[in-house]
UniProtKB/TrEMBL annotation:
<dbReference type="GO" id="GO:0005737">
    <property type="term" value="C:cytoplasm"/>
</dbReference>
<comment type="similarity">
    <text>Belongs to the proteasome subunit p55 family.</text>
</comment>
<dbReference type="InterPro" id="IPR036388">
    <property type="entry name" value="WH-like_DNA-bd_sf"/>
</dbReference>
<dbReference type="Pfam" id="PF22241">
    <property type="entry name" value="PSMD12-CSN4_N"/>
</dbReference>
<dbReference type="InterPro" id="IPR054559">
    <property type="entry name" value="PSMD12-CSN4-like_N"/>
</dbReference>
<dbReference type="InterPro" id="IPR000717">
    <property type="entry name" value="PCI_dom"/>
</dbReference>
<dbReference type="GO" id="GO:0005634">
    <property type="term" value="C:nucleus"/>
</dbReference>
<dbReference type="InterPro" id="IPR040134">
    <property type="entry name" value="PSMD12/CSN4"/>
</dbReference>
<dbReference type="GO" id="GO:0008541">
    <property type="term" value="C:proteasome regulatory particle, lid subcomplex"/>
</dbReference>
<dbReference type="Pfam" id="PF01399">
    <property type="entry name" value="PCI"/>
</dbReference>
<feature type="domain" description="PCI">
    <location>
        <begin position="173"/>
        <end position="342"/>
    </location>
</feature>
<protein>
    <recommendedName>
        <fullName>PCI domain-containing protein</fullName>
    </recommendedName>
</protein>
<keyword id="KW-0647">Proteasome</keyword>
<dbReference type="InterPro" id="IPR036390">
    <property type="entry name" value="WH_DNA-bd_sf"/>
</dbReference>
C-alpha cells in the first residue's frame, strides 16, 4: 500500500495519489497500521506539492480518511494544524482557530507531552488572536504550571506565561500578571541574559505595586524585595520598599521621583496607561489608609483627608471601599466627623 502511494508521487499523479489513499482506506479488513503508514508517507509530500491547490486537495483527502479513527488521531491533529497555519497566513484567523478547537489533544495517548503542550498553546494563541478571551482562558486551564518543571520545556513555559499575561492583561488582573512575569524571570535561560531578565523584573515590580493589597500580594512583595538582582535596579527596589514600609507616602513626591521613569515604561503607555496611573495613585492612598489605621484608633475626617491629600468626599469613598473589600474595619461618625478604626 505504501509503495502505491510512493509510485503515484514519483510519477507526479496527484489525482491518483488522492484516489488511491481513499481506496486503500476503504478496504475491508484493512490492518490499522497500513492506514497509519500511508498517511504518514503522504504527509511527507505536502511540502513538495507543485501548487497550492494540489497541497490543499491532499490535506483534504488525508483529513477525510483519518476522521474518527483513533489509530490516526495523531496524524489528523498534525494535518489540522498545518491547515490552520495555511488559513492563518491567508488572514482567516477565525477559521484557523475553529479548526484547532476541533482537536482535543489532551485525550491523545499517542502524542508526547511536549507536542501536546505545544499544540494546546497554539490553540490558546489563536483564540486570543481572534479576540475570544473566554475560550482562550478555558483552553489554557488544560495546562498546569507543574508541567514546566522539566528543563527541556523552558521554551514552552515562556510561551505559556506570555499567553497568560495577555489573558490577565485583558482583565487587569495585576497580581496574576506579576506572577506570570516572575515565572518567566525565574526560567534558567532568562536568568543568564540580563537583556531579558531586567525588563521582566521591572514588569514584576510595577504590576505588583499596582495590585490591590491582600495576603498573597504582601507575601510576594516581601519575597521580591529580597531579590538580589534588584540591586542593579535601585529605583524599582526603592519603590517596592515604599510599599513594604508602614509609613505614609506623599503622592506628589512619588510622582516627582517616578514620573519620568515610569512614563517611559510600556505599562504606563497607551490607552491603559492613564488608568494605571490612577490605579497607582489608588494603591498609594490605600497604603496610607492602612498605615493610619495601624497607628490611630480614631482620627478626624478633616485630618485624614489632609494626610491622604484628598478632599472629604474622596477620602470617605476610599475608606468605604476598603471596608467593603474587607481590608480593614472602620466606622465613620458623620455628625462628629470622626473615623474609628479597630
Amino acid at each position: 500500500a505504501v509503495e502505491i502511494v510512493k509510485i503515484c508521487y514519483e510519477v507526479g499523479d496527484w489525482e491518483g495519489l488522492n484516489s488511491n489513499i481513499v481506496l486503500i482506506s476503504k478496504r475491508r479488513q484493512q490492518l490499522k497500521q497500513v492506514l497509519v503508514e500511508i498517511v504518514q508517507e503522504a504527509m511527507k509530500y505536502l511540502d513538495k506539492a507543485p501548487d497550492h491547490d494540489k497541497k490543499m486537495e491532499l490535506i483534504k483527502t488525508l483529513r477525510a480518511v483519518t476522521d474518527g479513527k483513533i489509530h490516526t488521531e495523531l496524524e489528523r491533529a498534525r494535518l489540522t494544524r498545518i491547515l490552520a497555519q495555511i488559513r492563518e497566513k491567508e488572514g482567516n484567523i477565525i477559521e484557523a482557530a475553529e479548526l484547532m478547537q476541533e482537536v482535543q489533544v489532551e485525550t491523545y495517548g499517542s502524542m508526547d507531552k511536549e507536542e501536546k503542550v505545544d499544540y494546546i498553546l497554539e490553540q490558546v494563541r489563536l483564540c486570543l488572536d481572534k479576540g475570544d478571551f473566554v475560550r482562550g482562558t478555558i483552553v489554557s486551564k488544560k495546562i498546569t504550571p507543574k508541567t514546566f518543571e522539566k528543563d527541556q520545556l523552558q521554551d514552552l513555559k515562556v510561551r505559556y506565561y506570555n499567553l497568560m499575561i495577555r489573558i490577565y492583561t485583558e482583565k487587569d488582573e495585576y497580581l496574576n500578571i506579576a506572577n506570570s512575569y516572575y515565572s518567566i524571570f525565574q526560567t534558567p535561560q532568562v536568568q543568564d541574559d540580563s537583556a531579558r531578565w531586567m525588563p521582566l523584573l521591572q514588569n514584576v515590580v510595577v504590576y505588583l505595586v499596582l495590585s490591590p493589597h491582600d495576603n498573597h500580594q504582601n507575601d510576594f512583595l516581601v519575597r521580591l524585595v529580597e531579590e538580589k538582582k534588584l540591586e542593579l535596579m535601585k529605583p524599582y527596589k526603592v519603590l517596592l520598599t515604599y510599599f513594604k514600609t508602614m509609613e505614609l507616602m506623599r503622592w506628589s513626591s512619588l510622582q516627582e521621583l517616578y514620573k519620568t521613569e515610569l512614563s517611559q515604561h510600556e505599562v504606563f503607555k497607551g490607552d491603559r496607561g492613564v488608568k494605571r496611573w490612577e490605579d497607582l495613585h489608588n494603591r498609594v492612598i490605600q497604603h496610607n489608609i492602612r498605615v493610619i489605621a495601624k497607628y490611630y484608633t480614631c482620627i478626624r475626617m478633616v485630618r485624614l483627608a489632609q494626610l491622604l491629600e484628598l478632599d472629604d468626599e474622596a477620602t470617605e469613598k476610599h475608606l468605604c471601599d476598603m471596608v467593603v473589600n474587607g481590608v480593614l474595619w472602620c466606622r465613620i461618625d458623620r455628625l462628629e466627623g470622626v473615623a474609628t478604626f479597630a
